[in-house]
């Protein structure tokens, strides 16, 4: 069996998602949209699909975003239940909304105790920058602090979002600089590399901070080298992912094939798809 991990796919309860986001996904996937709905109702269908795509494991990204996706913290519980079908192959991610919680640390504990392997912060969908604790959002600091104490990585979306209602200015990667400085023992995963506007800033953050890893999802494989010409220097902290089923992502298998065809060292491709994900998310969970 392939040992490839797609670190970033989205699993959510379709009956709770906003009509605007559902419309964007329907437009992006056309006749395949009904298949997406079916997959989200049965994890065994997803596992069969991953087999077809040559993917062994997947990070199931979920987070509360009532203002954009329409999803609440119930989406994180959904991902946890979904992953129970095969916890070796399905890695549940979750999130805490620092604007709504009265005790961010306790909410992190609850998710981690239930089996959440990574926390997700999505600034454009949650309407605050990644360093908003420097401007008074104290529960965000509590979330980062407890994640660090529990040894759980935090994935932070950078770059734009095309979903209706998203506030793209919050996706600037430079705000991660504060987080990496203030929480040096916290493993951070920068998703998307600030694409398509702030790739230079993203690369600077990645080069500066050894506790920041790079999730390649949402970057068309053919754009990776033009946008990050020195990407090979980060081979020890790069994680391959797709962002499926976001609009524009045909399939994990298609993305993987295009990624493996890039003019990059084989060691880079092996680390991004197999070795590095196993370092952050060991098989023995």
What does this structure look like?
The protein is α/β, with parallel strands linked by helices and 285 residues long. The chain has a single domain, classed as TIM Barrel, CATH 3.20.20. The protein is 41% helix and 12% strand. It has twelve helices and eight strands. The protein has an eight-stranded parallel beta sheet. Helix 4 links the parallel strand 2 and strand 3. Helix 5 runs parallel beside helix 7. The two termini are 19 Å apart. The mean pLDDT is 96.
Offer a concise description of the structure.
With 285 residues, the protein is of the alpha/beta class. It contains twelve helices and eight strands.
Describe the protein's topology.
Layout: E1 5-10, H1 19-29, H2 33-40, H3 43-53, E2 57-61, H4 74-83, E3 90-94, H5 104-114, E4 118-121, H6 123-126, H7 138-150, E5 154-157, H8 175-182, E6 188-191, H9 199-208, E7 212-215, H10 221-227, E8 238-239, H11 252-260, H12 266-280
Parallel strand pairs: 1-2, 2-3, 3-4, 4-5, 5-6, 6-7, 7-8
Helix pairs in contact: 5-7
**Widest sheet: strand ordering:** 1-2-3-4-5-6-7-8
Low-confidence stretches: none
User: How many domains would you count in the coordinates?
Assistant: 1
CATH architecture: Alpha-Beta Barrel
- Give a short account of the largest sheet: 8 strands, parallel
Radius of gyration: 17 Å
Notable features of this structure?
TIM Barrel, single chain, about 280 residues, alpha/beta
């Amino acid at each position: 069996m392939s040992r490839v991990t797609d670190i970033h796919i989205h699993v959510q309860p379709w009956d709770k998602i906003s009509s605007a986001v559902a419309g964007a996904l329907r437009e992006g996937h056309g006749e395949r949209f009904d298949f997406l709905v079916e997959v989200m109702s049965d994890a065994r269908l997803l596992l069969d699909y991953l087999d077809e795509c040559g993917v062994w494991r997947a990070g199931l990204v979920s987070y509360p975003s009532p203002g954009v996706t329409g999803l609440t913290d119930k989406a994180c519980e959904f991902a946890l239940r979904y992953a129970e079908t095969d916890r070796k192959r399905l890695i549940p991610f979750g999130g805490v909304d620092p604007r709504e919680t009265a005790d961010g640390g306790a909410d992190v504990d609850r998710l981690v105790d239930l089996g959440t392997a990574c926390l997700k912060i999505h600034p454009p969908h949650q309407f605050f920058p990644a360093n908003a604790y420097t401007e008074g959002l104290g529960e965000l600091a509590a979330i980062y602090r407890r994640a660090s104490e529990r040894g759980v990585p935090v994935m932070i979306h950078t770059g734009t979002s095309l979903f209706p209602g998203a506030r793209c200015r919050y996706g600037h990667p430079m705000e991660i600089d504060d987080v990496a400085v203030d929480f040096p023992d916290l493993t951070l995963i920068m998703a998307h590399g600030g694409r398509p506007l702030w790739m230079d800033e993203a690369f600077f953050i990645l080069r500066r901070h050894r506790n920041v890893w790079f999730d390649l999802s949402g970057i068309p494989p053919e754009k990776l080298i033009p946008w990050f010409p020195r990407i090979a220097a980060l081979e020890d902290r790069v994680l391959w992912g797709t962002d499926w089923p976001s609009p524009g992502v045909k399939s994990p298998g298609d993305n993987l094939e295009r990624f493996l065809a890039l003019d990059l060292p084989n060691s880079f491709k092996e680390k991004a798809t197999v070795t590095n994900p196993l370092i952050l998310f060991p098989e023995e969970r």
